[in-house]
Amino acid sequence: MARKVAVITGGNSGIGYGIAQRLLDDPPYPHLTIVLACRNLQRADEARASLLAAHAAELLERDDDQATTKPDVDVQVLQLDTSRPASVLAAARDIRRRFATLDYLFCNAGILPASSIAYLRAAYYLFSAPHYFITSSVALNQVRGQLTPEGLGLVFSTNAFGHYLLIRTLEPYLFNRPADHGGEGDGTRIIWTSSNTSAHIGSMGAFRPDDYQHIEGPNPYESSKMIGDTVSTCLNQRYADKPVRSFITEPGTVASNIYAEIGNWLLSLIIVLVNYAFRLAGVAEMTITPYNGGLAPYYVAVESETELDPGTRYLSRCTRWGTPYVAELPVAADDDIGPGIMRQLDALVTKFSATESGKEEVAT
Ligand SMILES: NC(=O)c1ccc[n+]([C@@H]2O[C@H](COP(=O)([O-])OP(=O)(O)OC[C@H]3O[C@@H](n4cnc5c(N)ncnc54)[C@H](OP(=O)(O)O)[C@@H]3O)[C@@H](O)[C@H]2O)c1
Fold first, then answer.
1. Is 221 a catalytic residue?
2. Which of 115, 121, 166, 186 has the highest local Cβ count within 10 Å?
């Protein structure tokens, strides 16, 4: 039986780590390689060691029957900085060299650079629109104007464009799956970790056609997530006759490192306590742990293809008592802006692929 391969960008912490834990605990295939694609190899190695140690302990706890059929799962690491095109192109080469094809690509790595809490705004929304307050980033002042050394918007490049460049660069490889790799209907599933904040773009005016990388504006995070959603929808149209499908998932609100820059342990503790309070009050988005947050992306990986619909958004949610479940919403695509965004991104793909002086093949 073929060995399946799951690449998780940003798999060393938070929701990416939670997805890896779930894949290890209950893999969709008996032979699976999980690849933590991370910008920092030391953190990736530490995450790999901790995942394997936890998994070994879990196997010891299982009864003898299960132990005799224990799955053959290994964990590898791969260098990938999604914000840097050269790193993305190198990672694509590495993936092609190591594996016959990819079965799952979790586009998960992401940043939300915030400089401070917007206390007045936070207080206003806490009392006037508490659900919006707790499920959006309205309480944060995001950093504006951050650029990569290549001159790309940092949040745009990290969260959205780097993943798009990786997918485009891998196209010829993904389209030509080995015939003996899995059964009929099997293909690559691209699984995005989106955010419910992208649903708030109307009210926050996040996406700006004249500043599509959102370098000047106050909401680069929401804009990048909206671009990821748009890319997913447009790729499904473009890949209609290819063995690749793209899915949008949401993790809910997770107490991860993503907010680490804004404060100290006390502030982090307060944020977690507030999240628990909202969960007890019935706000299902409060998944809080990375393992809970990883449920919807994991579900999209393990569910049979006939049960999945790329036109559905899969959401990790939690009961007030902490039991996670998957909810569904229709994907809300804006057909007016999709083609324009794809043109801009494709122009960047061409530009950065060309700088590799013919090392990469990008299908046109
Ligand atoms: N936490 C939430 O409530 C929430 C809600 C909705 C959506 N999300 C999304 O969930 C995803 C994961 O975030 P998280 O909450 O789990 O935060 P996290 O714990 O900070 O994890 C983010 C991961 O992305 C990696 N990363 C950041 N920049 C990268 C780059 N340039 N190249 C490669 N990897 C990079 C980080 O690596 P380092 O360890 O090296 O920094 C880390 O592994 C993000 O896309 C985020 O937008 C989170």
1. yes
2. 166
340 token code pair: 């324009």
CA distances from 76 to 27, 125, 291, 318 (A): 15, 43, 20, 31
- For a ligand 1 pocket test, name from 13, 77, 80 the mutation site with the most ligand atoms within 8 angstroms of its C-beta: 13
Measured by CA distance, the residue closest to atom 14 of ligand 1 is 14
Continuous segment of H or E residues that includes residue 290: helix 290-293
Mean local confidence (pLDDT), 126-131:
92
* Beta strands 114-117 and 72-79, pairing class: unpaired
Query: Which contacts (CB < 8 Å, 24+ apart) does range 269-273 have?
Result: none
Tokens matching residue 328:
């569904």
Residue type, 295: L
**Burial degree of 151 (CB within 10 A; 0-12, 13-18, 19+):** exposed
The percentage of the chain sitting over the pLDDT mark of 70, rounded to a whole number, equals 92
How many C-beta atoms lie closer than 10 Å to residue 131's C-beta? 12
Q: How far is the CA of 126 from the centre of ligand 1 (A)?
A: 25
Q: Which whole number is the average pLDDT over 271-294?
A: 96
Backbone angles phi, psi at 39, to 5 degrees: -80, -25
Tell me if residue 328 falls in helix, strand or coil: strand
- Output the DSSP codes for 161-184: IHHHHHHHHHHHHHHS--TTSS-T
> What pLDDT does residue 279 have?
97
Q: Report whether pLDDT(249) > 50.
A: yes
The residues, ordered by sequence, that sit 6+ positions from 323 with a Cβ below 8 Å of its Cβ are none
Which residues surround ligand 1 with Cβ inside 6 Å? 9-10, 12-16, 38-40, 43, 80-83, 108-111, 158-159, 193, 195, 251, 253-254, 256-258
**Nearest residue to 179 via CA among 246, 100, 237:** 100
Q: What is the DSSP letter of 82?
A: T
Enumerate domains of the chain plus CATH numbers: 4-354 (3.40.50.720)
Cα gap 311→269, rounded to integer Å: 37
- Mode of pairing for the β-strands spanning 312-318 and 324-330: antiparallel
Residue tagged active-site, from 104, 125, 173, 221 = 221
